[in-house]
Design a protein that fits this description.
heterodimer; A: about 220 residues; mainly alpha; about 75% helix; globular; B: about 325 residues; 11 helices; about 70% helix
C-alpha cells in the first residue's frame, strides 16, 4: 500500500517536471490534466483503502469530485479560455527550459535536505510522500514565477493547489470531507473568475503578458 | 561450454531479432495511416539484397570511410555481448560492465561521425555535428541513471544488476527505479533516433540526423551500418526490459527448456515495447533541433533525482 503511494508521489513529481518542460499553452493544460488524473488515482486508492479499513466512503466521493472538477471541467474551461486568448504562439518564459528544469531540481534538493531530517508527521519520520508533494507546491510556485502569460499563471496556481491537496492527503491520510469539498469549490470558482479576467485583460491590452500590466502604474 | 552457449545465444538472438523491431514499428505506423505497409520481415529482405551488392566508394574518401561499417557493426555486437538477453545462462566470466557499454557505443558513434565528415558531402558534416550535439547531451543521463541502478545492486556488471532486480518485488513501483526508468525511456528515444528527436523515415535535409551520416554508404557497407543501428536499438530495449521488467525469476525449469521459455518471454516483451514505441512515435511530432536540450535536461534531472532519492531514502 505505502509502496504504491510512494510510486504515485514520485509520478506526481515527474508530472510537475514534464509540465515545467513544456513550451505551449495547450501542452500545459494536457500536463495539468495528467497530473489531475494521477491525483484522482491517488484519492481513489486511499478511498478504497479507507473503505476496506473503516467503512468510510467520503474519500471515494472526493475522488469522484476531483475527477469531475480537476480532470474534466477545469481543463475544458482552460481550453476554452486558451482558444480565445492564447492562440498566438509567443515566447512565454524568462529563461530557457533547461535552466528552469535545473531550478526545479534545486528546489527538489532543497526540499529533500530540509525536510528529510524533520520529525513529527506520520509516526516520527516525515516520509518521501510528504517531501515529494511539498516539492510539488514549490515547483508550482516556480512555474508561476517563470511564466509571463495569464494561462501559465493560472496553471501554476492550480499546480500549487494540487500540491497542497496532495500534501494534506499524505500527511493526514484524508482531511475532513467538508474541508476537501470547500477547497475544491474554491478552486473551481477561482478558475472561472481567472479565466474571465484573462479574457478581459486580453481584450483591453491585446496581450495577456503579465509584464505589460505594469504599464498601469502611474 | 557455458561460455560458448552464452556467446551463441547472445549473438544469434540479438542479430536475428534486431531487424524485426524495425519491421514491427514500421508496420504499426503504416496501419495507423490506413496503409498496408511492407511485410513484417522487409528489413531482412533489404539486408539480404544489400549484402549481395558491392559498395560504391568515393575516390576522395580515406580508409576511415571503408573501415567504419565494420567498426559500427562490431561495436554493436560487442555491446550486445554485455547485455544478456536471458540471465538463466550463467557464464563464469562476464565481459564488460555499464561504463564499458557506454564507451563501446561512443566508439562506434565516433567513427560514424568521422566517416560522415570523411566523404566530404555537406549532409554528412551536418548530420555529424547534430549527432555530436545529441549524444553529448544524452550521455550524462545514461551514465547517471544506470549507475544509480548499479549503486543499489552494488555492482556495475549488467548481469549482476539483472540478477539483483529479479529479487525485488516489482521494481516498477519502487520510487528510485521509476525515475531511472523514465530517464532511460527518453534516452532510448534519443539514442535510437526515434521520432521526437530524429525521424528515421525521412531523407529531408533539414531534419535528418542518422540518415545524413549513412547517406554516402551503399551496398554491403550500408547493410552493415543499418544492421548495426538496429542492433544498438535492440540492445537498449533489452537493457530497459531486462532491468526494469525482469521475468527470469518466474521460470523454475533449468536447462535448455528454461532458456527457451525465457527467450520466448523476452521476445514477447520486445514485441510489446516495439508496439509502445510505434504508438508513441505516431502520436508525437518531431521536435525542433534546438528543443532537444529540453528533453535531455528532463532526462538528466530525472535520473539525478533518482540518484538523490537513493541517497536520502535508501534503495
Amino acid at each position: 500500500m505505502s509502496n504504491y503511494l510512494d510510486a504515485l508521489s514520485v509520478l506526481l513529481l515527474i508530472s510537475a517536471f514534464v509540465l515545467m518542460g513544456n513550451k505551449r499553452t495547450n501542452a500545459y493544460i494536457k500536463s495539468f490534466k495528467m497530473q489531475s488524473i494521477l491525483i484522482a488515482i491517488l484519492t481513489g486508492v486511499m478511498g478504497i483503502n479507507s473503505l476496506l479499513k473503516d467503512g468510510h466512503v467520503d474519500m471515494l466521493v472526493v475522488c469522484a469530485v476531483v475527477i469531475g472538477i480537476k480532470v474534466i471541467y477545469i481543463p475544458y474551461l482552460l481550453n476554452k479560455t486558451c482558444k480565445n486568448v492564447a492562440y498566438r504562439v509567443e515566447k512565454d518564459f524568462y529563461f530557457n527550459i533547461p535552466i528552469l528544469i535545473l531550478g526545479c531540481c534545486f528546489i527538489v534538493v532543497f526540499t529533500y535536505f530540509s525536510l528529510s531530517t524533520t520529525t513529527g508527521i506520520n509516526s516520527g519520520n516525515i516520509n518521501m510522500q510528504v517531501i515529494n508533494s511539498v516539492s510539488l507546491i514549490l515547483i508550482g510556485l516556480f512555474f508561476m514565477i517563470s511564466r509571463k502569460k495569464a494561462i501559465g499563471l493560472i496553471i501554476g496556481f492550480l499546480v500549487i493547489e494540487n500540491g497542497i491537496f496532495v500534501t494534506a492527503l499524505f500527511a493526514t491520510q484524508g482531511m475532513p470531507f467538508i474541508v476537501d469539498m470547500g477547497i475544491l469549490m474554491d478552486i473551481l470558482v477561482a478558475v472561472i473568475i481567472m479565466g474571465m479576467m484573462a479574457f478581459r485583460i486580453d481584450e483591453k491590452f491585446v496581450s495577456t503578458d503579465g509584464n505589460k500590466i505594469k504599464d498601469l502604474r502611474g | 561450454m557455458v561460455e560458448a552457449v552464452y556467446l551463441i545465444v547472445q549473438i544469434s538472438v540479438i542479430i536475428l531479432i534486431a531487424p524485426l523491431v524495425n519491421g514491427i514499428i514500421k508496420k504499426i505506423k503504416a496501419l495507423t495511416q490506413k496503409r498496408t505497409g511492407g511485410p513484417l520481415l522487409q528489413m531482412y529482405y533489404d539486408l539480404f539484397k544489400m549484402l549481395k551488392k558491392t559498395a560504391v566508394v568515393s575516390d576522395v574518401s580515406s580508409w576511415i570511410f571503408k573501415v567504419t561499417p565494420f567498426i559500427v557493426f562490431s561495436t554493436a555486437v560487442a555491446a550486445a555481448l554485455i547485455v544478456p538477453v536471458t540471465t538463466l545462462i550463467k557464464p563464469r566470466w562476464f565481459p564488460g560492465d555499464l561504463i564499458m557499454l557506454v564507451s563501446i557505443f561512443a566508439l562506434g558513434r565516433f567513427f560514424m561521425m568521422l566517416a560522415a565528415l570523411d566523404a566530404g558531402s555537406t549532409f554528412g558534416g551536418m548530420g555529424a555535428s547534430r549527432e555530436a550535439m545529441i549524444s553529448s547531451l544524452i550521455e550524462p543521463s545514461i551514465i547517471v541513471s544506470l549507475i544509480t541502478v548499479g549503486l543499489i545492486a552494488k555492482s556495475t556488471s549488467v548481469f549482476e544488476i539483472m540478477n539483483f532486480m529479479q529479487e525485488i518485488h516489482n521494481p516498477l513501483i519502487h520510487p528510485v527505479y521509476i525515475m531511472s526508468f523514465c530517464a532511460l525511456v527518453i534516452i532510448i528515444i534519443a539514442e535510437t533516433s526515434r521520432i521526437p528527436v530524429d525521424d528515421p523515415g525521412t531523407h529531408l535535409e533539414l531534419t535528418m540526423v542518422h540518415e545524413a551520416m549513412v547517406l554516402e554508404y551503399s551496398g554491403r557497407n550500408l547493410a552493415l551500418m543499418e544492421l548495426g543501428a538496429a542492433i544498438k536499438q535492440l540492445v537498449f530495449i533489452t537493457l530497459l526490459v531486462n532491468i526494469f521488467i525482469p521475468h527470469d525469476q518466474l521460470i523454475n525449469i533449468t536447462g535448455f527448456a528454461g532458456i527457451g521459455i525465457s527467450l520466448l518471454v523476452y521476445l514477447l516483451k520486445i514485441v510489446v515495447v516495439s508496439i509502445v514505441i510505434a504508438i508513441a512515435e505516431v502520436s508525437t511530432v518531431k521536435l525542433r533541433l534546438f528543443s532537444i536540450p529540453n528533453l535531455a535536461a528532463l532526462s538528466f534531472i530525472l535520473s539525478f533525482i533518482g540518484f538523490l532519492q537513493y541517497f536520502v531514502f535508501g534503495g
